[in-house]
Amino acid sequence: MPYEVGVPMPDEFDVIVIGAGPAGEVAAGRAAAAGLSVAVVEKELAGGECSYWACIPSKALLRPVDLAGEAGRVPGVEMAPIDAKAVLAWRDSMVSGYDDSGQVRWIESAGVTLVRGRGRLAGARRVEVETQGGDTRALTARQAVVLATGSTAVIPPVPGLADARPWTNREATGARAVPGRLVVVGGGVVASEMAQAMRGLGAREVTMVVRGGGLLERLEPFAGEMVAASLTGQGVELRTNENVEKVERPDPEGEVTVRLASGRTLVADEILVATGRRPATGDLGLATVGLEERGPVRVDGSMRATGVGDGWLYAIGDVNGLSPLTHMGKYQGRVCADVIVARSRNAADDRPSMRDRADGMGAPQVIFTDPQVCAVGRTEAQARADGLDVRVVEYDMGQVAGGALLGEGYRGRAKAVVDERRRVLLGVTFVAPGAAELLHAATIAVTAQVPLDDLWHAVPSFPTVSEVWLRLLEEYGL
Length: 478
Fold this sequence. Notes:
Elements: E1 12-18, H1 22-33, E2 38-42, H2 48-53, H3 55-72, H4 84-94, H5 101-109, E3 112-121, E4 126-131, E5 136-147, E6 151-153, H6 169-173, E7 181-185, H7 189-200, E8 205-209, H8 221-233, E9 237-239, E10 244-248, E11 256-260, E12 265-268, E13 270-273, E14 277-279, E15 313-315, H9 326-344, H10 358-361, E16 365-367, E17 372-377, H11 380-385, E18 390-396, H12 401-405, E19 413-419, E20 424-432, H13 439-447, H14 452-455, H15 468-476
Parallel strand pairs: 1-2, 1-5, 2-3, 5-15, 7-8, 7-13, 8-9
Antiparallel strand pairs: 3-4, 4-5, 6-14, 10-11, 11-12, 16-17, 17-20, 18-19, 19-20
Helix pairs in contact: 1-9, 3-4, 3-7
């Protein structure tokens, strides 16, 4: 039950989880299902960033834009103009009107106690909670404390920027109206997705200011190039190799002026800063257990925090800096909970499923632009930097029969990075409309290290885009 001032609550639990986002909920629910008593502490909405300000609302905004692009490629199909007001209302329904009562019911049904308030460490196995009523509650964990506090958006120290009330992902995904003019600072996932969403929903001008030479620079180069071409084709202006020097907004409700290092001045209704995130560790009390107050909490393969004796402290999700992706945080939550349960029973805690392998292989990721970008494992550059014997094969996905059937002008590209010594895949990238559903097959192939000679016998259905697997293997020489 949620904690209320004046209502008695046990001081001790087997497990205390700080953070009720997807990672924390999974860890808490899995530990409770195994019979441990669990409390989860949350200072905002149960369900966390992904549910209300990131994954869910951003995809709700992007889906109509994606569908319009898909329909526009099919002869004989016409899309009515996108009704931005209706899309924003649908977004609201997808985030339950920013009401977490549904998430709270799930937490309670899982046998987990929800404690509303800001939690922080106060020594070994101890957590202090500043409740919403202003009281402080001291909790003790018999077995483990799990940190699952996520991450926060970074606002660069540009003169005037912080005072200009910039948007982060929260304000962008939660926008009450589509701005007429938007400046987007950054060239990563949030920047690319929200630039496309706002332009597709009716923003007259969208300008991206990108410090580097292109978009999505951590992925294969062609991914950023294809997304950039799509964005510019939709009317988004890209300003690469550019920096923001100063931001001015004298009227908090008025227009914002953005001065660039090149001397150009941009004027917009809103400015979105999407230049990265940092682990939310600044007020977690890490110093009380001998850890640095800032930066990610380093962990081993079982998600135990390194540098803390007795193995009682764990960190999962964005807070450990491994993979800032919701599905990876949930995966780490499962690993973590199983280790905690095993240790509580004095059972073996080193089974293969109790160690994180996926992060080291390269986490799967989908970027929901049009075209979608889907990648898992290492890029070619990463594989070569690791000193591996690499061979690369690529294929034009527009030449696959299933792709051609999806519409005129269907374009895409696939790339596979092969470890020549072992003849297994190190990484796979797909960039094409609707390519997201191809990714899990690639994830299985990469993480399970399926030999190419075995993949040859995994016959793709005709006529589907998944035939690209056959084409890649043929390009390799099978």
